[in-house]
Design a protein that fits this description.
By secondary structure, this protein is mostly helical. The chain is built from 19 helices and four strands. A two-stranded antiparallel ribbon has the order 1-2. It has a two-stranded antiparallel sheet with strand order 3-4. Helix 12 runs antiparallel to helix 16. It starts with a helix and ends with a strand. About 60% of the residues are buried.
């Protein structure tokens, strides 16, 4: 099939327009995920909460996000990215406004729940869109770029947010971000297309002179069952659960209180450390996605990143460190090595048929948010175990020995992620269901462990 130059140029323009809109939506996903860490003292003071209760409020986002991952994958594979992301931004926008206006902990929890519900479909929709608009051989790199840019939202939710709170209230910030979400919902509905074919353009495979991917031929429930029963998908689930779920719980809630309570830093200064974590994470996603594509391997990158993550959690407990370069380096390295998780998305989608890539990505993404949902309140519970009763201006203050409880838990979770990485199936950066030895690699659509 021949493709003329004008079609190619139109394809490129539309591809990057769609990518830019969906990335803007994804930045807000990360903002909502990480912002509670910076406003934790405001939330404690506004709602008079304990550490465990604050963790539960922040984790409300993760509870619904976790439950929605498989439905989000089904939505992306059936109705497409455009509908899913537009609806998601609409719901999260109203949820953020409600959270900002809430006068009680219960109402804030409802708002946080709606935010989690809305943003839960954005990432899967974006990754599914990437699979439709970008070449498979570059999927690791484009996944890394996606996470790099998305993490701009998390960086904005750290140091810049702390500075902004000197001039506006935390409530105004969440109302404002809610209004922006409504704008992005409109942009998605107007300009995003789920597939090139929906815009009258040839597919990526046609542009490369390749045969098109076979369409889904069965009901989505049968496809979902096939993906869920593919053993090769699940090791990536545990990598996400242990490595990235733990990082998000720490950077999104407890990283700032550690520097504030133990070392006496002001919020703006303490937030620089989680900013370093999130910047390291963004760079790590891009670098490790590129490295995996360059090496033509998935598993070594996942194992290496997971092992280093375990070592860094232990370093927080066992090594002498404090404010300044030692603390910044530890925080930054923790994010950098966790960025290797992005390779897990590619590894998961390459052991199932292309038509159900969204479902495979959704399953492994469930592990990430299940880990964060469990770890945020559990870390707070661990702090409360040995808390000495100190309260400053209505906010509980914890000692380093209290934080060690949570850091040991983080180390254990990360170790579980490393064990999962050891069982990841190596795909050599190709879809195993489309290779000549597909029958040996898969059985009735299932990858062997």
């Amino acid at each position: 099939m021949s493709v003329d130059l004008s079609e190619t140029r139109r394809f490129q323009r539309l591809r990057w327009t769609i990518f830019a809109i969906l990335i803007l939506a994804y930045m807000m996903v990360f903002f909502h995920r990480m912002a509670p860490g910076v406003v934790s003292a405001d939330l404690m003071a506004s709602f008079q909460t304990s550490g465990a209760a604050l963790g539960s409020l922040a984790a409300m986002y993760y509870y619904i996000y976790t439950a929605m991952q498989i439905p989000a994958g089904v939505l992306a594979d059936t109705l497409g990215s455009r509908i899913g992301v537009a609806l998601g931004c609409l719901v999260s926008g109203f949820g953020s406004i409600l959270f900002g206006l809430a006068e009680t902990l219960e109402m804030a929890s409802v708002g946080r729940f709606l935010v989690g519900l809305g943003v839960s479909v954005v990432f899967i929709g974006l990754m599914r869109s990437n699979a439709q608009w970008f070449s498979e051989r570059n999927y690791g790199a484009i996944s890394g770029l996606t996470l790099l840019l998305g993490n701009v939202g998390s960086i904005l939710a750290a140091g810049p947010l702390a500075l902004l709170l000197h001039t506006v209230s935390w409530r105004s910030v969440f109302v404002g971000i809610g209004l922006l979400s409504l704008v992005v919902a409109l942009l998605t509905a107007l300009f995003v297309r789920s597939r090139p074919q929906d815009a009258g353009l040839p597919s990526v495979q046609a542009l490369e002179g390749l045969a098109p991917h076979p369409p889904r031929a069965r009901h989505w429930l049968l496809d979902l069952r096939g993906v869920v029963t593919t053993p090769a998908v699940w090791p990536n689930f545990f990598v996400m659960f242990g490595i990235t779920g733990t990082l998000f719980a720490f950077a999104g809630l407890w990283g700032v209180p550690l520097m504030r309570d133990v070392f006496g830093l002001e919020r703006a200064e303490a937030s620089l450390y989680t900013t370093a974590t999130l910047a390291g994470f963004a760079i790590g996603c891009l670098a490790m996605g590129w490295l995996s594509d360059y090496l033509g391997r998935r598993k070594p990158v996942l194992i290496g990143a997971s092992a280093l993550s375990v070592a860094l959690w232990l370093a927080f407990i066992l090594l002498p460190w404090g404010p300044g370069w030692s603390g910044l380096v530890l925080y930054a390295l923790l994010g950098l090595v966790a960025g290797g998780f992005v390779v897990g998305y590619a590894a998961a989608k390459e052991v199932v048929a292309p038509g159900v890539a969204g479902m495979a990505i959704a399953i492994v993404n469930t592990g990430l948010f299940l880990g964060a949902a469990i770890m945020q309140p559990t870390f707070g519970w661990a702090l409360d175990l040995t808390w000495d009763g100190t309260v400053v201006e209505g906010v509980r203050r914890y000692a380093m020995t209290d934080f060690h409880n949570g850091l040991w838990l983080s180390s254990a979770f990360a170790l579980l992620g490393l064990i999962g990485a050891l069982f990841v199936r190596e795909t050599r950066c190709v879809n195993l269901t489309l290779t000549p030895d597909a029958f040996s690699a898969t059985s009735a659509g299932r990858g062997k462990p």
